[in-house]
């Protein structure tokens, strides 16, 4: 049994001035103990709402459906108090902007030690020692002194490291990281990814990483799920997906990656056009207006996600077609 098993997850928001919108539809995936799964897709594709639903953190006009079992227990059916206990204990989270998870009015020490005291009944002194140790592990210099400081006294990259340290300390089963490096410069980004990898390899923490950046997926994830307009369009082992994408949208995302052999100053190819508005209904494939391969059937019938061996995709094209991107043909 997978550690986290998500089955037919849906997220629907009601709107005061119109019909409801489905921002996550029929999404299923599994994360094994010690595994690393990336969820990738453009902004607005439903990545964040997918994890917010798992954690019971949807906005008040949101409603989830389906199942999300952690060690067999359905998170979506849990009472808020029970889910609260799991969050920050068995599941830790880090977000793009660490300030959304840090309280500006409390010292780092207070914020790092509270969960440990609450969930694990550890004494204040012991919790402080463990927090300092965790800060040292993520290479915060002079941790014993810095732990008494407030979040605004840390840089963005340091704040992200503080959150990783806080997660490390709890030794969660799953770490959910939603665009953890998006706001950071490239060097700091690489350090944060290295820390996550270390947490996965050394402690066996399973990682669910959300990003719009295929490069970040390549760095960290063994498996990947590509989302487009609220649905999963391709799922595969990362190496297989990079070697040979089977969905035109995935090929487009890979074409937007910088390549080492590209001429200096070459612009990145991006997929022309924009994703549909949330809740927009089309008869055919949601990607058809932007797809260079679209044919008649694509405008009439929506493709469904179909498994073939270890991967799956939602596209009417034959699986063995060689997809072209600006940076080459994936044959
Ligand atoms: N409270 C809400 N009410 C209505 N729509 C929402 C609400 N929160 C998010 N959305 C919409 O849900 C869609 C998916 O958002 P999100 O999961 O954040 O995308 P991503 O993380 O992939 O960029 C977006 O179109 C967003 O506008
Ligand atoms: S189903 Fe058609 S429009 Fe959709 S991705 Fe495949 S080829 Fe393109
Ligand atoms: Mg998001």
From TrEMBL:
Cellular component aspect of the GO annotation: plasma membrane
UniProt cross-references to SMART domains, sorted A to Z: AAA
Keyword Transport applies: yes
Major subcellular location class: membrane
Topology of the protein relative to the lipid bilayer: Peripheral membrane protein
Gene Ontology biological process terms, A to Z: peptide transport; transmembrane transport
Residue span(s) of domain ABC transporter: 4-254
InterPro entries: AAA+_ATPase (IPR003593), ABC_Ni/Peptide_Import (IPR050388), ABC_transporter-like_ATP-bd (IPR003439), ABC_transporter-like_CS (IPR017871), Oligopep_ABC_C (IPR013563), P-loop_NTPase (IPR027417)
Name of the protein: Oligopeptide transport system ATP-binding protein
């Amino acid at each position: 049994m997978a550690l986290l098993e998500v089955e037919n997850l849906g997220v629907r928001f009601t709107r005061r001035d119109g019909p409801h919108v489905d921002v996550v539809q029929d999404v299923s995936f599994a994360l094994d103990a010690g595994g690393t799964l990336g969820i990738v897709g453009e902004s607005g594709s439903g990545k964040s709402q997918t994890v917010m639903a798992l954690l019971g953190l949807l906005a008040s006009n949101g409603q989830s459906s389906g199942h999300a079992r952690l060690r067999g227990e359905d998170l979506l059916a849990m009472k808020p108090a029970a889910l609260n206990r799991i969050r920050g204990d068995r599941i830790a989270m880090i977000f793009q902007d660490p300030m959304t998870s840090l309280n500006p009015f409390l010292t780092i020490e207070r914020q790092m030690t509270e969960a440990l005291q609450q969930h694990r009944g550890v004494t204040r002194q012991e919790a402080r020692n463990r927090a300092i140790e965790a800060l040292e592990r993520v290479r915060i210099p002079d941790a014993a002194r810095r732990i008494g400081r407030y979040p605004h006294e840390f840089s963005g990259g340091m704040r992200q490291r503080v959150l990783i340290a806080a997660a490390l300390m709890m030794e969660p089963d799953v770490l959910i990281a939603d665009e953890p490096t998006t706001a950071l410069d490239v060097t700091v980004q690489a350090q944060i990814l290295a820390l996550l990898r270390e947490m996965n390899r050394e402690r066996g923490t399973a990682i669910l990483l959300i990003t719009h950046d295929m490069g970040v997926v390549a760095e960290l994830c063994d498996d990947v799920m590509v989302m487009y307009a609220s649905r999963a369009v391709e799922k595969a082992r990362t190496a297989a997906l990079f070697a040979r994408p089977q969905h035109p949208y995935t090929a487009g995302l890979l074409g937007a990656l910088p390549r080492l052999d590209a001429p200096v100053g070459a612009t990145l190819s991006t997929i022309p056009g924009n994703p549909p508005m949330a809740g927009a209904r089309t008869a055919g494939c949601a990607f058809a207006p932007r797809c260079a391969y679209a044919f008649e059937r694509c405008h009439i019938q929506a493709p469904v996600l179909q498994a073939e061996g270890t991967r799956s995709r939602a596209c009417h094209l034959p699986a063995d077609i060689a997809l072209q991107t600006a940076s080459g043909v994936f044959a």
